[in-house]
Amino acid sequence: xxxxxxxxxxxxxxxxxxxxxxxxxxxxxxxxxxxxxxxxxxxxxxxxxxxxxxxxxxxxxxxxxxxxxxxxxxxxxxxxxxxxxxxxxxxxxxxxxxxxxxxxxxxxxxxxxxxxxxxxxxxxxxxxxxxxxxxxxxxxxxxxxxxxxxxxxxxxxxxxxxxxxxxxxxxxxxxxxxxxxxxxxxxxxxxxxxxxxxxxxxxxxxxxxxxxxxxxxxxxxxxxxxxxxxxxxxxxxxxxxxxxxxxxxxxxxxxxxxxxxxxxxxxxxxxxxxxxx
Amino acid sequence: xxxxxxxxxxxxxxxxxxxxxxxxxxxxxxxxxxxxxxxxxxxxxxxxxxxxxxxxxxxxxxxxxxxxxxxxxxxxxxxxxxxxxxxxxxxxxxxxxxxxxxxxxxxxxxxxxxxxxxxxxxxxxxxxxxxxxxxxxxxxxxxxxxxxxxxxxxxxxxxxxxxxxxxxxxxxxxxxxxxxxxxxxxxxxxxxxxxxxxxxxxxxxxxxxxxxxxxxxxxxxxxxxxxxxxxxxxxxxxxxxxxxxxxxxxxxxxxxxxxxxxxxxxxxxxxxxxxxxxxxxxxxxxxxxxxxxxxxxxxxxxxxxxxxxxxxxxxxxxxxxxxxxxxxxxxxxxxxxxxxxxxxxxxxxxxxxxxxxxxxxxxxxxxxxxxxxxxxxxxxxxxxxxxxxxxxxxxxxxxxxxxxxxxxxxxxxxxxxxxx
Amino acid sequence: xxxxxxxxxxxxxxxxxxxxxxxxxxxxxxxxxxxxxxxxxxxxxxxxxxxxxxxxxxxxxxxxxxxxxxxxxxxxxxxxxxxxxxxxxxxxxxxxxxxxxxxxxxxxxxxxxxxxxxxxxxxxxxxxxxxxxxxxxxxxxxxxxxxxxxxxxxxxxxxxxxxxxxxxxxxxxxxxxxxxxxxxxxxxxxxxxxxxxxxxxxxxxxxxxxxxxxxxxxxxxxxxxxxxxxxxxxxxxxxxxxxxxxxxxxxxxxxxxxxxxxxxxxxxxxxxxxxxxxxxxxxxxxxxxxxxxxxxx
Lengths: 277, 420, 297
Known about the structure:
The complex is a heterotrimer.
Chain A: H1 2-34, H2 38-41, H3 56-61, H4 69-100, H5 106-116, H6 121-134, H7 142-145, H8 152-163, H9 167-175, H10 180-191, H11 193-209, H12 212-217, H13 226-236, H14 241-272
Helix pairs in contact in A: 1-14, 4-8, 4-11, 4-13, 11-14, 13-14
Chain B: H1 2-23, E1 32-38, H2 46-59, E2 63-69, H3 74-85, E3 92-96, H4 97-105, H5 113-119, H6 130-133, E4 135-136, E5 139-140, E6 143-155, H7 156-162, H8 173-184, E7 191-194, H9 199-208, H10 226-240, H11 248-251, H12 256-261, E8 265-271, H13 275-281, E9 286-289, E10 299-308, H14 315-327, H15 329-338, E11 342-343, H16 348-356, H17 364-369, E12 373-374, H18 382-397, H19 403-417
Parallel strand pairs in B: 1-2, 1-3, 7-8, 10-12
Antiparallel strand pairs in B: 3-10, 4-5, 6-8, 6-9, 6-10, 6-11
Chain C: H1 7-38, E1 41-42, E2 53-54, H2 58-65, H3 67-98, H4 105-117, H5 120-130, H6 137-144, H7 159-184, H8 188-196, H9 201-229, H10 233-238, H11 250-259, H12 264-292
Antiparallel strand pairs in C: 1-2
Helix pairs in contact in C: 1-12, 2-12, 3-7, 3-9, 4-7, 7-9, 9-12, 11-12
C-alpha cells in the first residue's frame, strides 16, 4: 500500500516536472541563443550553453538606427501603466455604481456591458480606426486608452467584489456626511485590493503584450511600443536569430517580474470570478 | 497614507501624459525642422544616410532634418499612408517607383515645377529620363534619389570547377541552364542558380519571353497568356525538372545570400544594393553580368524618389533638402563609396567613378542593364495586384498548382478586384 | 443602497458611469452599426469624401466569389480542430496534477504559467527559431532519433500544426488555472464514496470529474471557438499567412484589406461574415450544451 503511494508520488513528480520542463525549455533556448555570436547559433552540434558567450546581440539591438529599443521600452512602460490604471479606475467606478447604486436601466446597461464581451474584436476594429482618425487621435496614446475604458471583464469582476461589502457599513458613512466620492476612494477601493491586483495584472499584461491595435494606430516610429519594435526586428533581421532572442528576452523580463510580484492574487481573483455554472 | 499615494499617482499620471508634449522635439529658435521618412537606407546604410544629412545641415545651418527611418516592408507603406490620412505627414518622404503612382493619385505629394523655377534648379542635373519617370499629368511630382538594377552574380570558382565558361552579355535562358546543370552536378548541396520565384521576378521574366502583365495601353490584364504560362513553367522547371535550383524545402530556411557566400550557388540574381554586403563577405572570386534574356532582354529598374508632402509648411526648405541629397557632389561621393545603389545625377564623370570601383569587375553590366530596363506596373492597387499574383505564384512554386492553374486563377481574381 | 433624488448624488452617479459608458457607446455599440453601414459602401479613407459610394451588397458578393475565401475558413477550422482538443486535454491533465498537494507546487504553477504572460510577438519569434528547418532544436532533436523533420513553417502541411503547437504551449497554463478552480469545487466526498464502492481511477474520472467539470469545459470551448475564429496575431508573426497562403485566415484578410489596401467597405463586409459565422457557431454550441453538460442539482 505505502509503496504504491510512493510510486504514485514519484510518477506525479516526474510527470509534472516533465511538463514544467517543456514550458521552460523554449525560454532557456531563447536565453542561450541570445548570448551567442552569429556563427555560433548555427553551430552543430548544438550548444545548450554557449561555448563562447557573447553580448553581440544585445549590443547590436540597442544601436540599431531603424528600431529604437530603448525608446520602445520606455513607451511600453508608459503606455502599460496608463492602460493599467485608467481602465482600472473607470471599471471600478462603473462597478461601484452597478453594485451599490440603484438607478433606472441598471440591469439593461449592465447586460449591455456583458454582451460586448461577445463581440468579435474584428468588427469594431475598422470603425474605431475611422472614429479615431476623425477625432484626430491617430498616432496618440489616448487612442489606445479610450476603447479600454469600458473593460467589461473588469466591471464584472469588481462588481462581484463590491456587492459583498455590507450596505449598512456604507450607509453609516453616508450618514456621517461622506460624499459618494469619498466613500469610493476611502472605503470601497481599499477593500477590493485582491481584485484590483488581479485586474491590474491582467490589464498590464494585455497592455504590455498588445500588438495588433498599436500596430494599426501608432504610425510614427518614435511612438512605437516594444512589441512593435520586436516584430520589426523579427522581419528586418529575419536571419539574425540571436538579435530576435535578445529582443524577446528584454520584452519578456518586465512582464515576468510584474507577474511574479502579483501572482499570489491571480488565482484568488479568478476563482472569485465565479465560473461555477 | 493611502490617500497620499493615490494623489501621488494621479499627479504622476498627469505629468506623464503631459511630458511627451514637451519631448516631441522643441524647435531651436530660428531653425526650421523638417522630417524625412525613408526606408532605403536600412541598417547597412544608416550611417551613410546620417553623414549625408550632416553635410546638408552643415551647409544649411538654419535647417534641421529629423530622420524617420524605417526598414523596407509593409509597415512603411501602411504607416506612411495612415499618417498622411491622419493629417500628420512628414515633410518629405521616400517612395519607390512601384508605390509612386499609388501615392500621387491620392494627392499626397505636391508638384515641384514651381519650386524648380523658384530656386533656379536645373532639370538637367538629373540623368536622362529620370524626371519623366516621376512626372504625372505633365508635372514633376518627386525628386529621383537613387536607382538600382538587378544583375546576374556568379561564383567564378564554381564555374572553373565545372569547367564551363563564364556568363556573357549575350547569354540566353538556354546558356544559363546549361551552365547551371554543369554546376549542380558538382555536389548534392551545390546549385547552379537561384532565381526567386515571386512577383517581381515574374513581371520581368515574362517580358524576356515576349509577354507582359498588362496590355501596352494598361487597360487590360494579361496575366495568363500562353507565353506567360511558358515563362512561369520555365521558372518552375529549374526547381522541379532540372534541379538546378533548391526548392523551399531544400533551402531549409537558409537565406540565398548565405548560400552564395558559402559557395553553394553558382549564379544568383540580385540587385546592386547587395554589393555592399557581398564585398565584405565573399572570399572567392566573383563577377557580375547582365541577366540572360530569351526572346529579348529585360532587366529590373528600381528607383527611389523623394516626395514633398502637399501640406508641408516648409516646401522650399524641403525641396532644397531633397535636391541636395540627390545631386550634391559630396553626397554623391558618399553614395558611391558605400555602394549604396546608384546616384541619379546626369554627370557622366560620376558614372566613371562608379565603374572604376571594384570588386566586382564588369560594373558596366549594371549600366548596360539600363537599356533593357522594365519598370514595375504602375497602378493605384499595386499592393493588391502584387499580393494576388504572388500568392498564386508561390502556390505554384510549392507544387500546389500548375503554372497554368496559378496564372488562370490570378487572372480571374485580379480581373475582379483590380480596376484599371 | 438607494441614492435618493439628491442632485449631488445623481451627478456623482453620472460621473462614476461616464468614462466606461462613453467608451462603451463610442467604441463598441456605435461600431456595430457603423461597420454594418461601412460594409455597404466603397470607402477608402484616404481619398476625398466625395469618392465614397454606396454599393449595396456588392462587397459581400465579391467576397463570396473570392476563391480563396473557402480555403481561409478551412484553415481556421483546421486550426480549431487541432488546437481545441489539444489545449483542453493538456490543461485538464495539468489541472489534475496540480489538484494534489505536493511540495513546491506554487513554483510549478509559476513555471507553467510563464508562457501565458509572454507576448505573442516574443513567443512567435522563439517558436519560429525552434521550428527552423535546418537549425531549430526540434529538428535537431528529431534528427538525433533518426527522423528527418520538415522545414515546418515552410511546409504547407505542417505550417498550421506547428502554429497550433506553439499556441498550445502558450495558452495551456491559462486554462489550467481555470480548470483547476473548477476541480477544486468538486465535493471530495464524491470521490470518497466512489473509492469505497471500489471504482477505479478511470471510472472516477469518467463519472465524477468529467461531468462535474463539464460546465467549465463548455465555457472554455465557447470562448476558444470565438477566439479561434479570430486567430491572427500568432499566425501573422510566425508565418505571415505563408507558405503560399497555407495559413491564411479570415482576420488576415480583414486586416490586409482594411489597412494595406484601404478598402474599408470590403473589409467590413468580411468582418461581418466572420461575425455571423461566429454567432452561428456559438448558438450551435449552446444547442449542443444540453447533450453533454451536466449541472449539479
